[in-house]
Amino acid sequence: MKNIEISTAARNKLLSHIADLTTDELNYIPTGFNNNLAWQMGHLVVSQQLLCYRLSGNELVIEKELVDLYKNGSKPERYISAAEIEQMKGYLLSTIDQLAIDLEQNLFDNYNPYTISTFPGLTLTSIDDAVAFIACHDGLHYGCCLGLKKLVKMQG
């Protein structure tokens, strides 16, 4: 469960880091970047859902419509509303909490191996691999968000 704790800590830190930003600031895409802080949150939520739930044949615990908006390779094509941002903020923690419950109930026995496109040669072969990768992925994107916030504040 240590990886769950790591993800929870990273996501809580991200939420506190962006708490002072407006909806416009969360939607700002700095020059040379493909996404913004609002997309980063949604991407963390969707990635965890796909890598843990979809790959093990389980139903997602989020709306399926969110997948195409935030999956790997996507970028924000529209202004992300304050309501959707609040939804993503809630999902950042609730989806990790639900994952911990579902892990305890052994819902992930049918895991389909998956090679991570952004890490060539890295194949997730079990839910344990996926949960470990999610913890790393959360930290990676937290770092991205640190830089994005600096650029957001510089433009204002």
Please give the number of β-strands: 2
- Determine the structural class based on helices, strands and strand pairing: mainly alpha
The percent range for helix content is 55-70%
How many individual domains? 1
Q: What fraction of residues sit in β-strands? A: under 5%
Major sheet: order of its strands?
1-2
Arithmetic mean pLDDT:
96
Largest sheet: 2 strands, antiparallel
Briefly note the CATH topology name. Answer: Four Helix Bundle (Hemerythrin (Met), subunit A)
The first-level CATH class is given as Mainly Alpha
Number of helices: 6
Helix/strand order, N-terminal first: HHHHHEEH
Shape: globular
- Uncertain segments of ≥5 residues (pLDDT<50)? none
Summarize the helices and strands and which ones pair or pack.
Elements (H helix, E strand, L loop, with lengths): L1 H17 L4 H5 L9 H17 L11 H6 L11 H23 L9 E2 L7 E2 L2 H29 L1
Antiparallel strand pairs: 1-2
Account of the 3D structure:
With 156 residues, the protein is an all-alpha fold. It has one domain: dinb family like domain (Four Helix Bundle (Hemerythrin (Met), subunit A)), CATH 1.20.120. 62% of the residues lie in helices and 3% in strands. The protein is built from six helices and two strands; from the N terminus they run αααααββα. The protein has helices spanning 2-18, 23-27, 37-53, 65-70, 82-104, 127-155, and strands at 114-115, 123-124. The chain has a two-stranded antiparallel sheet with strand order 1-2. Strand 1 and strand 2 (123-124) form a beta hairpin. Helix 1 (2-18) packs antiparallel against helix 5 (82-104), helix 3 packs parallel to helix 5 (82-104) and helix 3 (37-53) runs antiparallel to helix 6 (127-155). The longest helix is centred in the last third of the chain and has 29 residues, at 127-155. The radius of gyration is 15 Å and the shape is globular. The protein starts with a helix and ends with a helix. The model has no long low-confidence stretch (mean pLDDT 96). Pfam families: DinB_2. Residues 9-144 form the DinB-like domain.
